[in-house]
Amino acid sequence: MTITEVSPTAQNESPTKFLWLDITRKCQLECAHCYNSSGPEGDHGSMSQEDWFTLLDQAADAGVSAVQLIGGEVTMHPHGKEIAAHALGLGLQVEVYSNLVHIAPEWWTLLQHEGASLATSYYSASAREHNTMTRRPSHGRTRANIVRALKLGIPLRVGIVSNDKERAAEAEAELRAIGVQRIGIDHIRPYGRGAAEPSPDTSGLCGNCGDGCASIGPNGQVAPCVFSTWMEIGNVQQAPLAAILSGDKMIQATAAIRGDVTMAKCQPDCQPHCVPNNPCDPRCEPNAACRPGTPPSDCQPRN
Ligand code: SF4
Predict the structure, then answer these.
(1) Which of 72, 149, 183, 279 is deepest in the core (most CB within 10 A)?
(2) At what angle do helices 139-152 and 127-134 cross, to 10 degrees?
(3) Does the beta carbon of 232 sit less than 6 angstroms from any atom of ligand 1?
(4) Residue pLDDT, tens place only, 225-255
(5) Selection from 153, 64, 140 nearest residue 108 by Cα
């Protein structure tokens, strides 16, 4: 199926600047916390290469300036490189979120292109603990490819995912010792395999979902962010991206998320939308914990 062409009048209606291209559910790993339950049995969905190209064309026309390729392991997608290259060709910033288990030579070349950057997750300085999380002996490969990315001068961001503050601090110290400068720390998000309950809710979100950003899934489904995919607001295989992003469903979804998150995390007398506008009140749980990943920021979409 081909993505519907966007009309000229609709192209400028969306204020969205950043998109997650959540292109696959396939991954070599099977992490215990994976927010979308990706793994070896996952697939690449129904979006063709041409669909992703058309989506990117629409996104650029609508004012999007940055995308992140995420999944699943995007380097396992048969058209991942072409999608990233198309986005770079449109002048977009492109962050590739990879587990860094195996990076083919062509990917290393692409990642050295101006506008490209790399991000990965890291779970512990201890190989045993890291591998317990990924359920594969992946620590050595990921660490070696972090070192290689630094040597090649590729802009790199590492998200440490741990509910143990001491372990996270050890991992951060190790990463800083090998030269990683952009490091974020986040807890395990209650989605996918990271969820204790099968039915997701908004309490694990930050409240910024859909605010200048949106996620496109492997079947073309659009959601306010990569964590809130059960709140589908449209499908780019059925409607133009700009119309979806500026539509009533997006407005309703983001309002519902903000309302729920503000109620759950803010003080009763706090100003409206406190969490999305953090920091507004030091008593409130800071939304800094959720920075779901834009290349210009220190966000951590994988977590
Ligand atoms: S968290 Fe990332 S590396 Fe782990 S299974 Fe999910 S997509 Fe793969």
Answers:
(1) 72
(2) 100
(3) no
(4) 998 888 999 999 999 999 999 999 999 998 8
(5) 153
